[in-house]
Amino acid sequence: MQSFDYHRPDSLTAAVDLLRGDDERKVLAGGQSLVPAMKHDLAAPSGIVSLRNIAEMRGITVAGGAVRIGAMTTHAEVADSADVHNAIPALAAMAARIGDAQVRNRGTLGGSIAHADPAADYPAAVLGLGATVETDQREIDADEFFTGMFTTALASDELVVAVRFPVPECAAYAKFASRASMYALTGVMVAKGPAGVRVAVTGAGFQVFRQKEMEAALAGGFTSEALDGIVQSSEGLASDLEASAEYRAHLVGVMARRAVHACL
Fold this sequence. Notes:
This protein has 264 residues and is of the alpha+beta class. It has helices at 12-20, 34-39, 75-80, 82-87, 89-96, 101-106, 109-115, 122-128, 142-145, 212-220, 245-263, and strands at residues 5-7, 25-28, 47-50, 60-63, 66-70, 132-135, 139-141, 146-148, 151-152, 160-166, 170-177, 184-193, 196-202, 209-210. Helices cover 33% and strands 25% of the residues.
């Protein structure tokens, strides 16, 4: 690991100013992705801008038919929140199964979606629930936020401040997890709500994606039987030592049915 400057601003404005002053500086949220990358010399920032002391980026509120979660809110805080349990229990249940206890108590919502790991859980929640990502500069619809493997619509000096999840009529997340990391080999979020029926898949491909054929079938009848005959193509899906593309394609169907069943 190379040497770097460490900055700990106590306001969003100060953090943004630091990032705009040096393109080589990186943001530190929970550190669950950046720190390992630095240890292995996969990232060598000139400086670290920690967001830990910025109170305006933390907390959970429910208003106007939506749950707003600050970017620096940890997975454990989401999992333990009575507000999230009452409004979107699927989101609390998802957060409770991310990684292990150490990861859940350090990792953050904003850090997870900004990193955009193709096997992370939160991208499926953001896309599946039709959330809105609030940054220091604008608001970004879920369908426009994730643009590729480890890439998003965020500019280099743009920070995720919060994510606003509309409260669905029902939602559920089903995941087939890696035994070692608890990342999703395939995870599916199914939601029925203000944005209609949405089915978001993580882990199977090189970025989170919506399964439009399943969405159309469920819009016609929200039952697991509505998915009968729908086969996820393995083309373009990930294949590695843990699971082939064909197996991941099979898991999309299995996890989607489990999620629908859990909704009902």
